[in-house]
Structure formats: C-alpha cells, structure tokens
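Structure (tokenized):
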C-alpha cells in the first residue's frame, strides 16, 4: 500500500512570522522612541485645535481653517479622550494605525506572493514610514489613512478568495474613510475599484458587477454621512468645501512639475526597494501589471509633494513589488533554516533603508526633533502657550500671527479669526486677497486680548506675488 505523503510542516511559517514580527515591533519602537514626548508641529497643532474647538462649541472650517477632510478631527478628538493636555495620544494612535496597516499589507502580499513577501512588505512599510526624514514622530493624516486604504485592498483580496457582495460594501466604506483623511488616497483606490468591478464582470457577468457597484455606492454613502454629515447638518458644508476642496485645488496648482530634490533623495536612499522592484518587473509574477499601475497612480500625485511625508501613501505600493522581488529570488520557504535566512534577508534590507539616516536615528528624541525642525518655533510654543494662558482669560480671544495653532491648543484659547494658519492668505492663490480682507475684518470685529507673533519665515511662507 502506497504511503500517503505527509503534509508540509507549518514550522517554517511560524518561525519566519515570529522572527519578522519581533523585528517589525523593534523597528517600530526604535524609530519612534521619542515620538510620545515631542511637542506638536504645526499640522498636529492645527488638527488638535480643531478637535478641541469642536468639543467646546466651535465648528472647524467655519471657525478654524483646515485643509484636510474631517476624519482627522475625529481622530484627534478620540486622542483627547485619553489625555486632553498631552501630545502622546495622537502619536500612539498613529503608531497603532501604522502597525495595523503593516499587518494588512502582509495579508495582501502573502495572498499573491507567499509568506516571505508578506512579512517583508510589512516590515519595510513600518521602516519606511518611520524614517526620521520621512516622518519624524508627527501624527500626520498620511499615517492614519494607511489603515483604511489597506483595509480596502485586503477586502478585495478576500473577495478573490471567496466572492461576496458585502465585501464591496466593506472595501468602499474603508476607501471612503481613507479619502476622508486625505484626498491623496483616491487614485490607487479608484484603480482597485475599477479592476475589482472588471473582475466581478468577468466572473459573474453584468449582474455581479451591478451588485458590486451598488454595494460599493452604499459603502461610500455610509462613510460620507459618518464623516461629513455633522458638518453639513451644522451649516459648515460650504466652508468645508472651500477649505478642503477649492483652496486645495489652487494649492495643488502651485506645485508645478515634480519635486526633483525629493525624487533624487528617494532614489539614493531607497535603492534596495527600487532594485528589488526591478527584479519584480523582470520576473513578472501574477498581478504584476496591477501592482505596477497602483504604484504609478499614487506616484503621479505624491511626487509633486512639497513635504516628504506626502510620500507615505505611496510606500505600501513600493514595498509590495519589492517584497515579491525578494521572495522570487529566495524561492519557497520550506525549512526552519530557510525561515531564518529569509528573516535575515528581510532584516538586511530594512537595515540598508535605515543606513543613510543612521546619524539621525542614533540621536535622542529631543535632538532629532530640533535637528529636523530647525527654524520652526515648535519647542518654544509650549512656554509661549503657558504665558498666553496667564495673560488671557478662557473667554478672551488670542491671535497667533503666523501658522502656529499648537499655541492655541496648548493654551486652550480661541482665535478671533478662522485663519489660525497664515498660509491661506499668504500663498499666491486667487483666494488670497479675499482671505486678507476677511482676517482684517475679523480682527477689527473681535480684537484679541493677546497677540503672539511667530518670528519664523517657515510660519508665514511669505510671497512677493
């Protein structure tokens, strides 16, 4: 009687997973070890002030200019429930969102290219998104949007394994939440949606595509009501549109061409991923065209970035092809020894990504913050806010001349104008003149008890135009 073959051992997968998870968690801790104690930078101050304002009778967009959609406000409100006077809660939530996004990316990569590719993409995502030159501690919208964006991608992968119309609803809901953090998530998510509907049509015909489209529309509608509904109902809808859509279109028009400086730095520092991505294109494994298109769709928008943290949404689409390239070079992981070698190879790439920034990574949290934000008054904002709170009563108005809303948040004082940042009326857009007239009228109508002047060109971005 022929002996039945024994099933393959699960030991290599468990060993590889344990080693890589330990390395991933250590990387997350080490690269972010100063995050919980560092002061807010201006974007975080803007989000925190809007969240505080919403909890104290104000209405962001109407009472505080904010370029981002509303979900970041709710996130900072949630952080405020943990400690309303500390900077660590939103940073902690951002780290948890990044960890969750990494595990979702592992799910996607493992589905297509195996266990090694799954853990490689997860570990490298955490590494890249935590590098001090990309994101020195700050709880940006780009970090938060990774979680719902990759949840939508993982929902598509789940549909490929076991189709069901409910997964369209889940994916569209998560995709809408990602866009409700920042509109930059839209291009790759639209591409996934279109490809998914095409696959549904090929698999189930027109009825399957129509069912999927209807469920996706329902998911978008539910997410829109949850994220936008309160502001529309409260009458801030037109201001929300003006701040988060109309002004952003003019702002984007100022970014002509590609940011060649950042592109050169990325090519120099991220060469391990680019080299492995070239292997991916050479081998052309399953879905290589889709994953290449996802990277290009995101890159076409983020490569015009004026700040490097705009690159964060592109990182998953860069890590996955690179991880697939490494997995194709290493081959199947079929023994405990191979699991150790695969983990070592993944760790080696993570170290190579960190190596150009070793001097910054070795710094203490305080020194790194000072080094990266030289010329910005973020550290000084803390004692300035303390002095403001001594000079102004809780119902007095305080005007911060510049773009340092973190002072208003620390002091828990309201601004007499919605322009808590100077960029809208300083940048040369068609809206600047009307914004300048508006802020003059606001200050005349509600004279502030205290004025804080931010003596930093980075706080003003003054233009001669």
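Design, position by position:
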């Amino acid at each position: 009687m022929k002996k039945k073959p024994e099933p393959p051992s699960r030991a290599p997968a468990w060993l590889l997973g344990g080693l890589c998870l330990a390395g991933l968690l250590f990387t997350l801790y080490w690269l972010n070890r100063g995050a919980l104690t560092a002061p807010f930078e201006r974007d975080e101050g803007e989000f925190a002030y809007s969240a505080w304002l919403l909890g104290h009778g104000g209405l962001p967009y109407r009472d505080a200019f904010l370029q981002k959609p509303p979900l970041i406000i709710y996130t900072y409100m949630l952080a405020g429930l943990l400690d309303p006077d500390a900077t660590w809660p939103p940073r902690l939530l951002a780290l948890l969102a990044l960890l969750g996004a990494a595990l979702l990316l592992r799910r996607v990569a493992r589905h297509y290219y195996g266990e090694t590719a799954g853990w490689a993409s997860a570990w490298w995502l955490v590494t890249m998104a935590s590098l001090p030159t990309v994101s020195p501690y700050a709880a940006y919208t780009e970090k938060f949007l990774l979680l719902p964006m990759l949840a939508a991608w993982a929902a598509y992968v789940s549909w490929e394994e076991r189709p069901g119309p409910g997964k369209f609803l889940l994916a569209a809901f998560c995709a809408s939440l990602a866009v409700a953090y920042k509109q930059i998530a839209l291009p790759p998510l639209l591409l996934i949606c279109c490809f998914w509907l095409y696959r549904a049509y090929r698999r189930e015909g027109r009825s399957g595509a129509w069912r999927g489209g209807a469920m996706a529309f329902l998911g978008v509608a539910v997410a829109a009501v949850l994220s936008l509904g309160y502001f529309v109902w409260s009458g801030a809808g037109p201001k929300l549109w003006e701040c988060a859509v109309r002004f952003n279109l003019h702002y984007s028009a100022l970014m002509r061409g590609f940011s060649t400086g950042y592109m050169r730095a990325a090519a120099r520092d991220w060469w391990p991923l680019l080299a492995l991505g070239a292997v991916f294109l050479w081998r052309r494994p399953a879905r290589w065209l889709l994953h290449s298109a996802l990277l290009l769709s995101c890159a076409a928008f983020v490569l015009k970035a004026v700040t490097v943290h705009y690159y964060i949404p592109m990182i998953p689409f860069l890590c996955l092809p690179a991880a697939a390239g490494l997995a194709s070079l290493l081959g199947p992981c079929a023994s405990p020894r191979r699991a150790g070698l695969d983990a070592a190879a993944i760790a080696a790439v993570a170290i190579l990504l960190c190596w150009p920034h070793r001097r910054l990574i070795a710094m203490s949290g305080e020194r790194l913050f000072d080094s990266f934000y030289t010329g910005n008054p973020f550290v000084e904002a803390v004692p300035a806010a303390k002095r403001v709170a001594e000079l102004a009563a809780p119902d007095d108005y305080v005007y911060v001349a510049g773009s340092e809303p973190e002072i208003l948040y620390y002091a828990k004082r309201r601004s007499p104008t919605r322009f808590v940042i100077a960029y809208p009326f300083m940048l040369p857009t068609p809206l600047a003149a009307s914004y300048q007239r508006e802020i003059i009228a606001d200050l005349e109508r509600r004279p502030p008890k205290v004025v804080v002047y931010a003596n930093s060109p980075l706080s003003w971005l003054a233009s001669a135009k």
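Reviewer-requested clarification: Confidence is low (pLDDT under 50) at residues 1-8. Residues 428 and 465 are 6 Å apart (CA to CA).
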